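Side project, low priority. Logging it here so it doesn't get lost.
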Amino acid sequence: MKLKLIYIFIFGLLSLTYSFTAFEDSEVVSVKGRQLRINDTPYFIKGVCFNPVEKGHTERDFTNIDLDLALMNEAGINTIRVYKPIDEVSVLDKIAAAGIKVITSFGYNQEGYFDILTGSYLDYVNTYKSHKAILFWELGNEYNYHPEWFDGDITNWYDSLQIAADAIHQNDPNHPVASAHGELPDSATLAASTNVDLWGLNVYRWDNPEVIFNQWTALSDKPMYLSEAGSDSYMTVANHEFSKGENQQAQAQSLNNILSDVFDNKAINSGVLVFSFTDELWKAGNPDKQDIGGWAPASSGVPYDGTANEEYWGILDVNRHKKDAFYILKEFYNNPEN
């Protein structure tokens, strides 16, 4: 960054157009009532969870970011949720140029990669808090399922969450702080986490999450969003009209019903992140081929077989071929009434 600023100072008369437009962020993201807002205009998340790991690999990379962004624009996606921060400014610049926002998730222990344990998450916040791509910060991902990560006592996580959220507020007053919780938090969790401005809920309730919106209104007056929702495209067993094996129709039908519930309850929720954008072949076996195994906590609510086949969750396959679910999402996200 310093070298770029020196370049502009010396050669500014030659090229004033070379500027940091992605960092010239006059936007203020806030919460008001049950709404998420950008510059005081309501913002509804039409999103996907995004963790692009290519076939044969086990780590995220952005080799296909241009194609991915074009597909996102086609589908009407306005937000992506990533499970660890994107530290490639060129990638963030492309995301911002595509008119897409990023929910940046910080893990508790990511071996020092902008994590909460080392405090290095604040380095990321202070580096990128003025970047146009940033929507808000998200701390943790369904850690309530993993007390073993916190000496067997999940309250240790909520103590860390409270402290980390406060630290972000001190460093960045222009973006709210969220946490992604597995299912519905209880009142004790919310009371222990008052510095969290809005809550993401990872919800797998078959193809009908409708009840959770009323349950949330009874718990909190803060905004909420579905930080994960959807289903995979593999049926471990036959169920009703859906046959065993790879079954895009089952995935599409469940997504249609889930998104119907989300958009019918816009007065309560602030949007949804469909899980996920592409299939991830690294999750359950050999990353060179698609395996039917995998495991996820609290996954018995996955439609329509109660099984999370971890390598089949994309609305696109790993080669970016569109599944039936892509067209369902596209229809909902591009509907002007939504």
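Brief comment: Residues 2-333 form a domain with the TIM Barrel fold (CATH 3.20.20.80).
Revisit when time allows.
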